[in-house]
Amino acid sequence: MQHDGSGRIAVQNLSKHFGPVAAVQNLSFTVEPGSVTGFLGPNGAGKTTTLRMLLGLVTPSSGVATINGRTHDQLGNPATVVGSVLENEGFHPKRSALNHLRVYAAAIGVPDRRAEEVLGLVGLSSAAHRRAGDFSLGMRQRLALATALLGNPQVLVLDEPANGLDPEGIVWLRNFLRAYAREGRTVLVSSHLLSEVEQTIDQVVIISAGMTRYFGSLEQLRQGQRSRVLVQPSDAGELVKALQENGITQLEPTQDGRVAVSGATVQQIGDIASKAGVALYGMQEERADLEQLFFQLTQGQYSAPQPQYGQPPQQGGWGGPPSGPQQQQQYPPNYQQQQPPPGHQQPGQQGGGWGGQG
Ligand SMILES: Nc1ncnc2c1ncn2[C@@H]1O[C@H](COP(=O)(O)OP(=O)(O)OP(=O)(O)O)[C@@H](O)[C@H]1O
ipTM > 0.90? Predict the structure, then answer.
């Protein structure tokens, strides 16, 4: 069947329920060719389920996931459009790497010589005649990637590809994926660790509890990092009151007894404290790194957010009622970017993981 050849992945209002478990809830995002997109979320966020729906392995409860404007079953010979490596894919342990690839090459109708080519692409030529059962985890991942590449696909979907790779392997994979994307192809890489893929990806889709939390460029996410000031006052209650009276309301107690103030400069805080007669014993500016931000965006899946000042006091005024764990994160508000940046205006998409094209 014809498809539009765009290389675009589109996920639109995708949901999947397993009995009472809402694994994926109304996810929408798009992944464009020419860049590496990270598909990020904590364990159990719904990444694998989303990727499996994209790859035609799980039927959505509602919504649709397409590649080139088509669902997986409409792609004709899918291995020539999308190569994937999903978790826990096995190889016949006694078969050599080359023979494994030849079997798959025959299955998708590509010539035998392609098996040798892809072994070279993933740096496994010297192990071509070794049994896959004797491979290390890193080598098995390379072999899975080689399998995914057999059909020379326009789209590559990898589930947690860095698992089992040594540092050298991670650098190699990073360079490989970036070069692949530079050829105008689409690369979607899932991970539960932002730090693991931060240097590889340009775009990012962040999900938590089956819902989209952020979707856009990594650069934009970086620029939006919120800084805060950690203040050690003589009287926390008085300082909080004074700041709130001056319209500064993003205040949280820290575990070490300080007050974390967002949305105000050191100078503003100092001036307000001084006018209120509150002595300050120290102020420290803290800039959230990307990993902290990722955690903030996704932590609602398992734990209640940090307590905040300002709402009906509890526990001596140190704990306002947090938003519930399943709510969209409130921090920072502009990160709930359901509106993608320019070039990402299409409704929904998602991607997959390490899935050797079977
Ligand atoms: N076949 C299934 N039957 C029942 N529940 C399932 C099934 N597959 C996934 N789930 C549930 O759906 C939710 C999302 O799981 P999923 O594997 O998609 O998350 P994930 O983000 O890929 O997590 P991880 O990083 O741990 O692989 C989890 O609560 C999981 O237990």
Answer: yes
Q: Is the CB of 63 under 6 A from ligand 1?
A: no
With vertex at residue 207, the alpha carbon angle to CA 205 and CA 213, rounded to the nearest 5 degrees, is: 80
Q: What is the pLDDT of residue 62?
A: 96
pTM metric for this prediction: 0.72
- Ligand 1 centre distance from Cα of residue 21 (Å): 9
Query: Hey, what domains does the chain have and what are their CATH numbers?
Result: 9-222 (3.40.50.300), 225-320+327-333 (3.30.70.100)
CB atoms within 10 A of CB 34: 15
For the CA atoms of 144, 123, 94, 51, the dihedral, rounded to the nearest 10 degrees, stands at 0
Give residue 93 CA to ligand 1 midpoint distance, Å: 27
Distance between first and last Cα of the chain: 20
Q: Which atom of ligand 1 is nearest to the CA of 48?
A: 22
The pLDDT tens digits for 56-73 are 999 999 999 999 999 999
